[in-house]
Amino acid sequence: MVEYKDDTPDPAKLHMLWSSWLRYTRSYPPTPEEIIKYEQDKVAFAEKVRKLEEADAKLRMQEQLERKLSGNWTAGGGSTPMMTAEQMMQSISASEARQQKHDTAQGASNGPNPDKP
User: Looking at residue 54, what is its pLDDT?
Assistant: First the structure.
């Protein structure tokens, strides 16, 4: 039996590149540069997904607004629409401004990105 200095290692915590080498799906062990590049790519991919989901949510909101305005949809069955198209667009613009401010703050806290010129 093997006695470990700390806790028993958790295979789920093993980096994917090392795991693939140990399972013979890679022919050589990962280098530190490969691991760094993989982590950077993973972060960039997550950012792209976030932006796409944000754009998708915006499109869905616009489509929903168009459907509501094109039909006779009203709030609570009354005669007044919940939000005008202009109000909805102002809301979207304000949301985009908040997101841009957040992104700028995130970029400043992360320091310069060597991948971006």
Answer: 93
What tokens were used for 113? 């990105």
Instruction: Write the DSSP assignment of 48-82 as a string of letters.
Output: HHHHHHHHHHHHHHHHHHHHHHHTT--GGGSSS-S
The conformation of residue 7, written as its DSSP 8-state character, comes to S
- Among 79, 45, 49, 81, smallest CA distance to 64 is for 81
Would the pTM of this model clear 0.90, i.e. be above it? no
3-class SS at 114? coil
Sort residue 75 into left (φ over 0), alpha (ψ -120 to 50) or beta. beta
Greatest mean pLDDT among 22-26, 32-36, 86-90, 104-108: 32-36
